[in-house]
Model the fold of this input.
Amino acid sequence: MSDMVLQVTNVGKSYREYASEWFRFAGWFGLARKKFKEHWVLREISFSISRGEAIGIVGQNGAGKSTLLKMITGTLFPTEGTVGSFGRIAAILELGMGFDPNLTGRQNVWHSGGLMGFTRADIEAAMPGIEEFAEIGEYFDEPLRTYSSGMQMRVAFSLATAIRPDILIVDEALSVGDAYFVHKCFARVKEFREQGTTLLIVSHDRSAVLSLCDRAILLDQGRMLVDGEPQEVIDYYNAIISERESRTIRRERSKTGTMATVSGTGEATIDSVKLHDRNDDVTELVGVGDDVTLKIVIAAREDIDNLVIGYVIKDRLGQPVFGTNTRHTGHELRHVKASESFELTARFPMNIGAGTYSVAVALSSSETHLVNNYEWKDLALVFTVVNIDRPMFVGVAWVPPTDISLLPTAGYSPGPEHMDEKAKP
Done:
């Protein structure tokens, strides 16, 4: 049996605007074909998903993300192409979609659960778990119109995930939840993934996409631009957002084989990014806590009134670990002339945990690359941190205690059996 659970082939969706309702009626019978305007919101979308994969769909508002999900769930039919799914789909596309505001939460579970294909026995067996997971107390038996948006999301998510689906689709619904419940939802999603559920999630939260997803798909103006590793796709997405009018948004293959995104208008460019050890030798392997120097060489191609150089260290998932820029540090460059070049030298201890990290560098006119993005380069440098001679620890940061003691409380004297050999007098 194939592991394929979803196959989207050359899918497109268009909407037609007719000159009148008569022409719309005539169009049903193949007449008056030229009497309408056709607007395509999606075109030539193709991808497949295997069992247990987690896929993130990213893109700006109006890119066609929600339309695509509706066609996958069958609530909307494609104008062209096909969608094939294998297994039960649970979807949270719109908050409380299908809920009746005059019914209680419990009654809505019965009603919507039936529409989702659950049998009466299924709902009856799942009801205690739905009520417990939602954690809205006595409101579960109050009309839905008295609920906040977060309470509605709690009931909707609890119902959709009451029975583990083969495919779980979430469209930004978790963005309205409180932090505690969102954490609880993600824990359930991760549990489902371990059990083989396929996840399809639309989110503007880069942390959710980077931490949950194996792949990501970038939609832009109804077209699929990139299908690849989450960090690669998020970087490209950020480049599109930051500078629509950029002269260049290009992708380069890094030394590690991943695709790096470079964008910007080109008034200043990044010539080199290197990491040096305490002996000033170039290195890509650093010990936990070692002193290192990051050197960034940049060149001005045109006159620039204000130039800010920024960098951010990211973990292997693309999550920022630390970032700063020359405006924050008080080293902003002003009235830079064309052909001038500069080297930024930043010394710091590598107080982060063992793992693989990358450095992104940005040249702009302010502390954000969203204004005058001269050049932004992701994966400008990739390096590895190893624990060579530090005591064993867990986590992403090296913050050892400078002083630690363990003493008995007042009125209690521990016997020698409680003391570590090193701590005994």
Notes: Residues 259-386 form a domain with the Coagulation Factor XIII; Chain A, domain 1 fold (CATH 2.70.50.60).
